[in-house]
Amino acid sequence: MDISEKISALKTEKGVTILAHYYTPLGVHKIADRIGDSLGLSKIAKNEVETDYILFAGVLFMAETASVLNPAKIILSPDKSAGCPLANFLSGDDIEKYKEKYPNIPVVVYVNTTAETKAHTDICCTSSNAVKIAEKIAEEFKTDTILFGPDKNLASYVRNRTNLNIISIPGRGFCPRHNLFKKQDVINARKDHPKASLIVHPESPPEVQEMADYIGSTSGMINFVEEHENDSGYIIGTEIGLMEHLIWKNPSKNFFPLNTKSLCENMKKITLEKIYSTLKSIETPEEAKYQVKVPSNIAQKALLSIDKMIDYS
Ligand code: SF4
Question: Which one of 9, 29, 102, 283 is most buried, counting C-beta atoms within 10 A?
Answer without folding.
Answer: 29
